Amino acid sequence: MANEWATFGADLHLELRGPRLRAGLMEALREAVRSGRLEAGTRLPSSRSLAADLGMARNTVADAYAELVAEGWLTARQGSGTRVARRAASRRPPVRTPGPGSVRAPGPAARRGSVPQPPPSAAPPEAGGLRPGAPAGPWRSGAPAHNLKAGSPDLASFPRAEWLKAYRKAITAAPNEAFGYGDPRGRIELRTALAEYLSRARGVHARPERIMICAGFVHGLMLMGDVLRGRGVRDVAVESYGLDVHAQLLERAGLGTPPLPHDARGTRVEELAEQGFGGTGAVLMTAAHQFPLGGALPPDRRAAVVDWARAAGGFVLEDDYDGEFRYDRQPVDPTPWELRENPSSRQRLPVGALQVLDPERVVYMGTASKSLAPGLRLAWLVLPGGLVDEVVAAKGPHDWSGTPDQLALAEFIRAGDYDRHVRRMRLRYRRRRNELVGRLAAEAPHLRVSGVAAGLHIVLELPAGTEQQVIRSAAWQGLALQGLSHFRHPDAAGPCPDGLVIGYGTPSDSAWSGALDALMRALPEP
Question: Which residues, 6 or more positions from 97, have their beta carbon under 8 angstroms from its beta carbon?
Fold first, then answer.
């Protein structure tokens, strides 16, 4: 029976060798457990199913299971099926003997909660990196215990029950043709639901025929990069602060990414008309909530960037990455260093989509990554009429996003579950934001906070020259953090203020208080 394969739910294959079926099956199962492909507690297929998959008698599989149970590899209980035994140890790669200067991995006792000790050569962060009275953090060689990086929602809060309900209903009602290759723009059910929702919630002018479903925001940006390059565009201007992966994707498409200057009122879009931006055919912006600084583009500059697009025949790529999460009806706070330069910058700023000013010059880019989960890989472009055919051609003849998830999201929106989930998460994130800002006000009142009115992160101003030191102190506490400099374009002009971009969406509720404690221990004293 060599070259016979059975596929398990987690892409696990069994290869049976030798003339004796039962012995070959038993050895294949043992090897799957030893290698870790079958983890302890994994439920195995029924004897009937596995026999059918392998083309052997059911009694042969049943006998093999029974013998492996007797040997201690498997367990069998009425109503629970046959599972890999908890005591069946997986075979791991051999551990090399520690040499001089190497560090031994923590043993089982450490993994149960004891604190691993740093190696003799390890030293705590520089003096002043930890606040006086704060306990020294543990040395950690693996992943950090806490994560306050910006950009991710609380994945533990994904609405599993509601999503499963929508999924079942959508799949049950779906026509047979929905499971074919379909329209490259995406399922009409989802495009219709999004057109209604975006118009209602974000003020976007959207029609289903102008919406393109993408496999995540990055996919949509790749498509736009290809289209713009095909039109002869040389440069896509970007903001001085943002995600480097976005600029890198555009550069991979053969486009330059000159950064627009930033001042007390946000991105200086008027610079697009200057000589240094003569080859620019588009600009990528987070106009409603600048990432990561947190301000909104003021009305005159919103109008100015659209006027530039009209006059130059260019396009504005509007990244509305967290438009659903706005907590306060008060004005958006500019950053504290901006207020010192221009106190009048505290004004009521628009928070709706920029696209409403000119749907023929603004490409609206949205995603479910913050509102639901990035693992869904669902995003959308609302395109000007003149770009629809070109973006469809760039995408190719087939849809990249799975039909079942598209249908499920359409039903999720149509039934009102999306609105209810967003409202629920908005309240949860607001409470976290308030707790974070409250702890900072009580324990680090000398540090200023900004960008609190929206999104899933805040910006914390630090004393000059301390950003990297604080990040090292945080790592010593087992906390992952990012500094403001991490998001600065390498060609941006002017000084970069020291600061932290603190995300409060990522931790689960159970990990939230521990992450806050670690942050407070890492912050510098006055």
Answer: none
Three-class SS state of 381: strand
Q: Are 148 and 480 in contact (CB under 8 A)?
A: yes
Q: What is the DSSP string of 45-81?
A: PPHHHHHHHHTS-HHHHHHHHHHHHHHTSEEEETTTE
Question: What gap in Å lies between CA 60 and CA 22, rounded to an integer?
Answer: 6
What pLDDT score was predicted for residue 285?
95
The two tokens of residue 238 are 């970007």
Residue 140: exposure state from Cβ atoms within 10 A (0-12, 13-18, ≥19): middle
Express each pLDDT in 8-29 by its tens digit.
332 335 667 777 888 888 888 8
Which residue's entry shows tokens 């398990």?
A: 8
DSSP 418-447: HHHHHHHHHHHHHHHHHHHHHHHHHH-TTS
**pTM of this prediction?**
0.71
Residue type, 109: A
Tell me the C-alpha distance between 282 and 248, whole Å.
15
Rounded CA separation 157/506 (Å): 10
Per-residue pLDDT of 41-99, as tens digits, reads: 888 888 887 887 677 888 888 888 888 887 788 888 876 788 888 754 444 333 333 33
Reply yes or no: is the peptide bond before residue 292 cis, omega within 30 of 0: yes
